[in-house]
Design brief:
By secondary structure, the protein is of the alpha+beta class. Helix content is 50%, strand content 18%.
Length: 420
């Protein structure tokens, strides 16, 4: 029976090409718009390499505040001393990493180059938290870090730019006038991985200038923190332990006190727009974003409702004729729903493809960094697509089902005349 319905539905699509095209494209537009908005949030929150454990991560990237007497206040990042006393001593997290990054030039021995690259200065725990895909070699070791041995990891694109291949382990480069040796090559990282992105990864013990930039009794500095919990249920316990370590650290200071305000925040908090200075509540985010999503769904869908209802009304005479030849209410109703379901499905598939095409085109204003590389594991999320598809299907079924039900209950004589 349903096979016959599908054949009839395809025939109806051919006969009413304009209305069918409007319905399919309208559904596709609804789904494409909602998918683009959801995909942007997904890129900011979902796990992908090398940030495969985002659901277990906590961050302190800003919101470090140091207050001293005489109304002196520092807002920024923390020093190596604060990292060592407040975070490296934590017992609850699985791993704690301190890092800072900034652009700097790279060169080859005997060949001065002026291109600037993003340098990520980190510690050995960084490689435990982030799941980098090594093409050659391995990360710098604890011994390299402790002894400030200049061994660095470079991205695939940097290796190819400098040497023309990824087989560069053991070869020299010049990082900020410092001779270094390449110890590993990793697959390029998307800028969407904002706390692990870099072109070169080096031990922060190499950068003595940044380590020496401290303020407010040695509390303020250049460091940010990423913490990896054993389980996301440990977040509250980790926050309490950080407060205890902070209070202990503050008691050793004479004049200044450090605080971390709303920190540490989760990846979900970051995706909602929260920071260490201001945390956005979930209900506020849903009120703002949920209204936008609903608008993106309803505007095209409600316009489609009028088109769909008009198309059903024009088929009153056909329905009346079929009833005269013995078609039951259930058969008429099922056929119309099947036809509309096919339209929604076609529109949904087109909308999914359209959203994946639109996001790279529109990422200049949708994402913070237009150079963000987009990968399949960042974009493909069946759950979001199914929710949007089901919502459109529901609206389309209501727009067809209500008039179809009224027509199927109408007396044959009135239906044949096409009476309202």
């Amino acid at each position: 029976m349903f096979k016959q319905y599908l054949k009839q539905a395809l025939n109806m699509l051919r006969e009413n090409r304009l209305i069918s095209l409007i319905s399919i494209l309208g559904t596709a537009l609804s789904i494409a718009m909602i998918m683009v908005v959801c995909l942007v949030f997904q890129i900011q929150s979902a796990s992908f390499s090398p940030e495969t454990n985002r659901n277990r991560m906590l961050y302190i990237e800003d919101g470090t505040q140091v207050e001293c007497s005489a109304n002196r206040r520092y807002n920024g990042f923390m020093s190596q001393e604060a990292v060592r006393e407040c975070f490296y001593t934590l017992k609850k997290p699985e791993a704690v990493s301190a890092w800072f990054s900034f652009p700097a030039p790279l060169s080859l021995p005997g060949k001065r180059m002026y291109n600037s690259y993003d340098i990520m200065y980190s510690d050995p725990a960084f490689w435990k938290i982030y799941d980098f895909r090594f093409l050659e070699g391995k990360p710098f070791t604890d011994a390299d870090f402790t002894s400030a041995i200049p061994r660095v990891v470079v991205s695939e694109s940097v290796a190819r730019t400098l040497y023309g291949s990824t087989d560069v382990v053991g070869k020299p480069i010049i990082l900020e006038q410092m001779p270094c040796t390449i110890c590993g090559v990793v697959k390029d990282v998307s800028r969407a991985a904002d706390t692990s992105f870099g072109d070169v990864w080096a031990p922060y013990t190499l950068n003595q200038m940044m380590l020496g930039l401290t303020q407010m009794e040695g509390m303020g500095g250049a460091f940010k923190i990423t913490l990896l919990a054993h389980d996301k249920g440990d977040f509250d316990a980790i926050r309490r332990e950080i407060e205890q370590q902070r209070d202990r650290y503050n008691t050793a200071k004479q004049d200044c006190k450090i605080s971390f305000l709303e920190n540490p925040i989760t990846r979900f908090d970051k995706a909602m727009g929260s920071s260490g200075w201001r945390k956005i509540a979930l209900k506020d985010y849903l009120l703002e974003t949920g209204g936008l999503l609903l608008l993106l769904l309803l505007v095209p869908a409600l316009n489609l409702t009028g088109v769909t209802q008009s198309a059903v009304q024009k088929r009153r005479s056909e329905m009346g004729l079929r009833k005269a030849f013995g078609a039951t209410r259930g058969i008429l109703f099922s056929q119309l729903l099947c036809e509309n379901g096919l339209i929604t499905l076609l529109g949904g598939v087109i909308g999914l493809v359209l959203s994946l095409l639109l996001l790279p085109v529109c990422k200049d204003f949708l994402l913070k960094d237009a150079e963000t590389a987009l990968h399949t594991d960042m974009l493909f999320q069946p759950g979001i697509f199914l929710v949007a598809l089901l919502f459109c299907l529901l609206l389309n079924l209501l727009s067809v089902g209500i008039p179809a039900l009224r027509i199927s209950q109408q007396p044959i004589t009135k239906a044949l005349k096409g009476d309202e």
